[in-house]
């Protein structure tokens, strides 16, 4: 027992003497602070001193390097005398106008004006009256060339003089056509070139069929009104000939052409439509500072003074192709003799005699199914 007590005293004095030794050196003090202080129990039973764990170094999160975005393209300032292209219609016109703005963004000679009004049409003129609006725009001379795409809201009953008619009935069609003719008639009187865009296929079959019937009315109105009609129906069909939300874009890559509602165009679809329209616009606008100038093929002729729609480009050309050449009654026709015989007939000649018709070789235009065979004539001469 005495021995144990002695050992305790020795250990106590040893700890008291060790502390001043550590206080003399700063480095040792730092080491002692990092180590766990040894107790009397550790000295008696020989427990190994445990080193304090190294301090945890907190690292700052590495910041990602900023991504360098390409510089925006400089906006091209439009010329003062730039051709003003106005887009009229419903929500389809709004998307189309944005696409045309992108298409002609770098052309200083063409300015796109968005005149689209969502939820509008020719049926609900109490909500928005397009015939009144187009008259106001013409009076203000706010545009040079008109693009029209409209109709997705017009499959509903129409009211005329207090009477309501269901959509696509004969009474509805007559009232609808009257409003179309009024709209185009104002543009025709103001000699404003018009490109009317037909409606694309829709995802719902019944709704798509109704839009096709309305597009047929647009086509007839555009034809009679001397406007261009751009049929885009087949250009937005799938390979199976049915509605498809996918299709090739302007670069030939497969992309989403329509929005989820199955009615409106996506950005890629609107850009594709803008490309098609740019091909029709070339009839009236070719860039390079050339303003809208429409040449009339009948200008300077007797037919130019006749009552007819103003010339609108290809639409009027198609009308001429259907109607045929216009020849004034007072104009003397050219003699056919110059085309049938080698030598022109004298002016006093009244035509071909019966003998000449009978003697015409078989196969000539004036043989009329009879005539002589040149080979038989040669055989008779040899005999």
UniProtKB/TrEMBL annotation:
<keyword id="KW-0732">Signal</keyword>
<feature type="signal peptide">
    <location>
        <begin position="1"/>
        <end position="23"/>
    </location>
</feature>
<dbReference type="GO" id="GO:0004622">
    <property type="term" value="F:phosphatidylcholine lysophospholipase activity"/>
</dbReference>
<feature type="compositionally biased region" description="Low complexity">
    <location>
        <begin position="57"/>
        <end position="67"/>
    </location>
</feature>
<protein>
    <submittedName>
        <fullName>Uncharacterized protein</fullName>
    </submittedName>
</protein>
<dbReference type="InterPro" id="IPR051532">
    <property type="entry name" value="Ester_Hydrolysis_Enzymes"/>
</dbReference>
<feature type="region of interest" description="Disordered">
    <location>
        <begin position="50"/>
        <end position="75"/>
    </location>
</feature>
<dbReference type="InterPro" id="IPR007407">
    <property type="entry name" value="DUF459"/>
</dbReference>
<dbReference type="InterPro" id="IPR036514">
    <property type="entry name" value="SGNH_hydro_sf"/>
</dbReference>
<dbReference type="Pfam" id="PF04311">
    <property type="entry name" value="DUF459"/>
</dbReference>
